[in-house]
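Z., the sequence and structure:
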Amino acid sequence: PTTPAVAAPAAAAAPARERTVKRRATNRDGSPKVRRPATIEAEIERLDADIAAIDQQMLDPDVYTDAGKSAECLERHAKLARDLAARWKELEGAIEVHGD
């Protein structure tokens, strides 16, 4: 009986959080905010370094001979590669808006 009363405020708070996130991600006119190229470039450098670290881990025989460790490294590598591709695309748009 008390669980619905507790769950209701949390459920009501979710749309408010979504509005806050949406508001931060958009300008006053509703257009998406575009981050500065330098910010995105720093993320690209970090992602490159993270990918290089995983590549080094995969050279370790203890990692590549362990199926679980290998799978974990490969999954992380794939996620970072997707994130890196997204940052490069975002950088292209940011340069169009802000310049170099």
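Residues 2-8 have pLDDT under 50 and may be disordered. The helical segments are 2-25, 37-59, 61-64, 67-98.

Let me know what you think.
H.
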